Structure formats: C-alpha cells, structure tokens
C-alpha cells in the first residue's frame, strides 16, 4: 500500500547505522516474519497512515533498537520523539492519536468485547507454536491442541469478521497466526491433515474473506517465504 515506505527494506544488523528520522515521520521498527509486528503493519494499513518501516535483525539486534526498546522486540513505534512498543499497546496508541480512523469501536462495551475476543483466540498462537516445537513424544497433544483452538475460533465467528461486517481489532490481532497455518501443509511428518479441517467451515470461509482485505494483501507474505524463514 502507498502509505508504507520501506516495508521490504533490507534488514539492519549490529553495526548498521540507525537511519535518520525526519521530523513528524511515524516509524515502525519491524521484522518481516514476526507475527506480532505484522499486527501493527495490518493496523497501519487499515488506518492508511503514512509510515516509514525499518526492518531489524531480532537475533543479532542493533544496539540502537535496545536503546529504543529495552525489551529488544518489535513492533516498536516512534513518533515525535516518543516510543511505544508491544503490538496491542502500539495499535491502541494509533487509535488514540488518529481517532478519526479508529479500528476499535467507540462504544465501551463493544470495545471491551473486541479485546475479550483477542484473549479467547489466544489459544491459536499458543497451539501453533506448540505444534512447531513438538517432539514425537508431545506431538499428539500438540495436534489436539491446535485442532481444539481452531474449533474454538470457528465457534466464535458470528459474522463475516470478528469485528462484525468489517475487520476489527480482533481480526488484525489473530490474522498473522492464521496466515501461518499454511506452513503445516509443508510439514507432512506432523500428520495434521487439513488445517483448518473441513469441520471448521466458518473459519475456512473467513480465511478466504480475510485474504481479500486490502490491509491483509498489504501485509501477508507467500507461505514459501515463511517456510524459508
């Protein structure tokens, strides 16, 4: 999308200089394959906010990233000399400073419900990483956990999106992990079968709808790139 500058820029490593930041520019410190950073890429795309993206190496971090964020994580957002980090915090901050394009609802109850949905969907990233890191001894339990998490996600879909008729806070929070489910098809030794399975009919249709959203098209990467990473 035209609001991004540097989304596919080279990854900066220790020893690389911190690029100068022009006054008034919003900068996102990012790693191209981090699902948590992708949450904020999606948010910025949805809100169509002009942003400069600086991609960093998270294994060997530049010293200046740690000076910006002592946790050394992404996403980290810098704006007018102020720095905020953690994906949910960054995204809520963006809604606060650009309320005219707020993704979170204005109504306090609906706003709270979107955050509750994120918590109720949090079993997906936990289960996804559980499968990826499983051993032959723990695989059956890990496979059962991902199937249970996806069945739960299917049951929570009561409209086109978790945000209703359009993508909302919960959709942009969970999508990066659903995007990576395609990795399982490249790992036949896991014996997962189809993920999601044909029983997850609403979730399958939802994933296809999500792939058509402009913010998702801007942020998602081909599954072979995720696999190579």
UniProtKB/TrEMBL annotation:
PROSITE patterns membership: GST_CTER, GST_NTER
GO molecular function terms noted in the UniProt entry: glutathione dehydrogenase (ascorbate) activity; glutathione transferase activity; methylarsonate reductase activity
InterPro entries according to UniProt: Glutathione-S-Trfase_C-like, Glutathione-S-Trfase_C_sf, Glutathione_S-Trfase, Glutathione_S-Trfase_N, GST_omega, GST_Omega/HSP26, Thioredoxin-like_sf
Catalytic activity reported: RX + glutathione = an S-substituted glutathione + a halide anion + H(+); methylarsonate + 2 glutathione + H(+) = methylarsonous acid + glutathione disulfide + H2O; L-dehydroascorbate + 2 glutathione = glutathione disulfide + L-ascorbate
Taxonomy, superkingdom: Eukaryota
Positions of the GST N-terminal domain: 24-102
GO biological process, one term: glutathione metabolic process
Residue ranges of every copy of the GST C-terminal domain listed in the record: 107-229
UniProt EC number: 1.20.4.2, 1.8.5.1, 2.5.1.18
Described function: Exhibits glutathione-dependent thiol transferase activity. Has high dehydroascorbate reductase activity and may contribute to the recycling of ascorbic acid. Participates in the biotransformation of inorganic arsenic and reduces monomethylarsonic acid (MMA).
PANTHER family in the cross-refs: GLUTATHIONE S-TRANSFERASE, PTHR43968
Family label: Belongs to the GST superfamily. Omega family.
Name of protein: Glutathione S-transferase omega
Organism: Plectus sambesii
């Amino acid at each position: 999308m035209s609001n991004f500058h540097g989304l596919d820029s080279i990854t900066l490593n220790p020893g690389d200089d911190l690029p100068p930041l022009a006054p008034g520019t919003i900068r996102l410190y990012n790693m191209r394959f981090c699902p948590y950073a992708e949450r904020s890429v999606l948010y910025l795309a949805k809100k169509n906010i002009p942003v400069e993206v600086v991609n960093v190496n998270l294994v060997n971090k530049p010293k200046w990233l740690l000076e910006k964020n002592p946790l050394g994580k992404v996403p980290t957002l810098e704006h007018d000399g102020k720095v905020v980090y953690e994906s949910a915090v960054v995204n809520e901050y963006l809604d606060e400073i650009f309320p005219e394009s707020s993704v979170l609802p204005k109504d306090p109850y609906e706003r709270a419900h979107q955050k509750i949905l994120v918590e109720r969907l949090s079993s997906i990233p936990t289960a996804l990483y559980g499968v990826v890191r499983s051993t032959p001894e723990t695989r059956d339990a890990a496979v059962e956990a991902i199937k249970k998490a996806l069945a739960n996600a299917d049951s929570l879909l009561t409209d086109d999106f978790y945000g209703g008729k359009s993508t909302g806070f919960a959709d942009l929070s969970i999508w990066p992990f659903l995007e990576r489910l395609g990795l399982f098809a490249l790992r036949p030794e896991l014996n997962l079968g189809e993920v999601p399975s044909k029983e997850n009919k609403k979730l399958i249709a939802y994933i296809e709808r999500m792939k058509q959203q402009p913010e998702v098209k801007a942020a998602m990467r081909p599954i072979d790139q995720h696999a190579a990473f």
